[in-house]
Amino acid sequence: MNTEGLLAARMVRLKSSAIRELLKHSKMEGVISLAGGIPSSALFDFDGLRQATQQAITEQPEHAFQYGLTEGSYTLRERIAELCQERGVVAKPDDIVVTAGSQQALDLVMRAVVNPDDIFVVERPTYLAALQTLELAEANILSVGTDGDGMIVDELAELLKTRKIKGVYLVPTFGNPSGVTLSRARREQLVQLAAKHEFLIVEDDPYGELRFTDERQPTLFELSKALFGHADNIIYTSTFSKILAPGLRLGWVIMPDWLLHKVAIIKQAADLHASALSQSIAECYLGLGRLPAQIETIRAAYKKKCQILAELLERELGDVLTFEYPKGGMFLWARFREPRNCAEWMKKTLEQGVVFVPGEFFYADNPDHSTFRLSFATATEEQMHEAVARLKRAL
Ligand code: PMP
């Protein structure tokens, strides 16, 4: 049978995640991976998760195993609202939809707001799987540069002089892959531009809680409310993946009224609602009151790992690489001082037994081939020493 033409045209544009392909290498014996964007399972609170699971299936089985509301369990949304309040994101349970990870939130939101060829602006570099949701929604993706203070909002302002855009997607705090955080001044500038030019901001915040210092930037959601008394054009999404367990596949999205009900309809079409069992477990876990201590544990561990990796890189490869010290999150973004194709270089590092993600995969356009992303979340201290020695050998 000739199957040509059976696939939708938009699928031709869609790239598979090169990172997922790469992760196959990271499973090879003896290979040290600094590639994956996965949290360290050595830090998971298995005791707490076991208790919460036990409680969910014995105390509320009719809730855990039955269909539920599309927007998500009301009790869980109440608890999420409390969590968000501590981050300065003040929302009611009715402003929240629980999703299958924040990844699904991105997909649902993009489908709800993007018409084919609408312009969506992303950072250069940006989160690869957000690009996939934009491609699926058939957006016209444009990008603006990023430096040590996050997205260069002046570049966006320049672009707005000639183009009408639908929205901006960004990870403003401890970005993936850049590791950097948008400065306070640029946050205000961005929120003001969004109000003036009436575009959406999709604020993706999976890493905001994983900070290594006491410094905390306000969310764009919070700033918009402070400046304009509303967040009618801000969509805030976050997740339990990096603070609790990604296998639960639970995230959430806070949206204005005009959008929330439309997103809920798309969610109905996609999967009716997020897993009731996962929601019950998360609900019980939050009820145990263990999350704050768990977040502290993760922060302390990642902070230490980040410091070790940064110091090793500085000492061993500082003459050929530059990078910003991350103040939180899971990633360190490095650039060769002299141009080098990191995808090519990785063939050599693989021979030495170490993988990372070449930076070029994180660009919507104009990739910088001299960049690469290292994750410090999963490797042990010993592995990091060995990994940096192997990187050096592969040069
Ligand atoms: N956004 C960003 C920036 C991420 O790094 C990730 C996970 N790698 C996600 C969203 C999706 O995470 P999840 O679906 O597990 O919540």
How would you characterize this protein structure?
This is PLP-dependent aminotransferase family protein. Its cofactor is pyridoxal 5'-phosphate. Residues 45-391 form the Aminotransferase class I/classII large domain. Keywords: Aminotransferase, Pyridoxal phosphate, Transferase. This protein has 395 residues and is α/β, with parallel strands linked by helices. The chain is 45% helix and 15% strand. It is built from 15 helices and 14 strands. The chain has helices at residues 10-13, 18-26, 46-59, 61-64, 74-86, 101-113, 128-136, 153-160, 184-197, 220-228, 257-271, 276-288, 291-317, 342-352, 381-393, and strands at residues 32-33, 96-99, 119-124, 140-147, 150-151, 167-170, 200-204, 234-239, 251-254, 321-323, 331-336, 354-355, 357-358, 371-375. The strands form 3 sheets. The protein has an 8-stranded mixed sheet with strand order 2-9-8-7-6-3-4-5, sandwiched between helices. It has a 4-stranded antiparallel sheet with strand order 10-11-14-13. The N and C termini lie far apart (49 Å). Bound molecules: 4'-deoxy-4'-aminopyridoxal-5'-phosphate. 4'-deoxy-4'-aminopyridoxal-5'-phosphate is lined by residues 37, 101-103, 127, 171, 176, 204, 206, 239, 241, 246, 251.
Distance between the termini: 49 Å
Radius of gyration: 21 Å
Q: Overall mean pLDDT score?
A: 95
The helix fraction, in percent, is 40-55%
Number of strands: 14
Strand share of the residues? 5-15%
Query: How are the strands of the largest sheet arranged?
Result: 2-9-8-7-6-3-4-5
Number of helix segments? 15
What's the overall geometry?
globular
Uncertain segments? none
Q: What order do the helices and strands follow?
A: HHEHHHEHEHEEHEHEHEEHHHEEHEEEH
Structural class: alpha/beta
